[in-house]
Amino acid sequence: MNNSNFVSFSFFSFLFLSQTFLSLSATERCNPNDKKVLLRIKKALNNPYQLASWDPKTDCCDWYVVECDPNTNRIVTFNLFSANISAQIPAAIGDLPYLQTLVFRKLTNLTGQIPPAIAKLSNLKLLRLSYTNLSGTVPTFFTQLNNLTFLDLSFNDLTGPIPPELSLLQNLDALHLDRNKLTGNIPESFGKFTGKVPDLYLSHNKLTGSVPKNLGDLNFTVLDFSRNSLVGDISFLFGTNKTIQIVDFSRNVFEFDLSNVKFPDSLTSLDLNHNKIKGSLPQDLRKLNLQYLNVSYNKLCGQIPTGGKLQTFDISSYFHNKCLCGAPLSACN
What sequence ranges are listed for the domain Leucine-rich repeat-containing N-terminal plant-type (predicted)? Predict the structure, then answer.
């Protein structure tokens, strides 16, 4: 091959390779900055098997665990669950600025505290850090996430008080702090949510004191305060003008007279078992479309009202009271 042919061949070879490279680059949707961050996250998580598809030679929009926005091609979802990972949440997660959904779930060897870098994710709408071994306190920096609609920190080892500042989250639909080791009182600020009124899940903690009265000023849909050491009267959380549907106040030390409590028509599930509630069951309970009822292990007396759905529940819904009687329990004397 003479020199002119060699030069011509080399030029066309270079042109072909350049066009091939440009073609591959053109077809890749993944934002290069997002890809770099994801690869840092993979390394920080010790290159787990669940991220095996995260090959730097491939398009990150096609990787498992993450999703790209179809218009911007930026990473908007990070959903890692049921993986054998021994690590902490990488601070690099805060460098995915378009992230809307962030999930670390069912990762029992995920340890450490919730990193402050999450506060940088201003577009975040759903945050679920649950079923892990995360420890430390519930951060106050969550209040910087103004677009947050769902916050789930359940089934962890979080300690300390509930931050009152969480009531500043105006778009919150649900707050899950259940199954931790949280202490102290339910914040009074939870009666002053400035936007939406979220479903509150605070069960299986070590909360004490009485429920703030101003919670009765709001219309909740779901309240779960079960398995704490809360005390006092909570009858103010009910009323015919309320819209509450699901209530679980079981296994606390609540003490009040149930006789004259008015329940809203919206109520479908009522669990008051293992408290110190006295009085009788209100006749109005017959009017409700209850799917679940448990008032066992209290100090109730009198006849169970006849009618509605009250006789469709078995003995376990009523037993171990002071002198409650009538179907499905034994007849009254």
Answer: 32-69
Per-residue pLDDT of 298-318, as tens digits, reads: 999 999 999 899 999 999 999
Check: CB of residue 310 under 8 Å from CB of residue 293. yes
| pLDDT over 90 at 209, yes or no | yes
**In the structure encoding, which two tokens stand for residue 278, read together?**
């006295």
What is the per-residue pLDDT for 18?
Answer: 44
Do residues 221 and 243 make contact, with C-beta atoms less than 8 angstroms apart?
yes
* Confidence grade of residue 8 (pLDDT, cut at 50, 70, 90): very low
Helix, strand, coil % in the chain, rounded to nearest 5 = 25, 25, 50
Measured distance CA(260)–CA(302) in Å, rounded = 13
Number of other CB atoms surrounding residue 214 within 10 Å:
13
DSSP 201-251: E--SSEEEEEPPGGGGGS--SEEE--SSEEEE--GGG--TT----EEE--S
Output the six-digit token pair for 55: 């090959």
Residue 78: both structure tokens together: 């990070």
Report strand pairing: 150-152 vs 323-325.
unpaired
277-to-92, 99, 234, 286 alpha-carbon distances in Å: 50, 47, 10, 19
Which value, to the nearest 10 degrees, does the dihedral of the CA atoms of residues 206, 174, 172, 153 take?
50
Are the C-beta atoms of 196 and 219 separated by less than 8 Å? no
| pLDDT at residue 10 is higher than 60 | no
Sheet of 278-279, strands arranged across:
278-279, 299-303, 323-325
Question: What is the predicted pLDDT for the residue at 97?
Answer: 98
DSSP 118: G
pLDDT exceeds 80 at position 277: yes
Task: Output the six-digit token pair for 164.
Answer: 């009152």
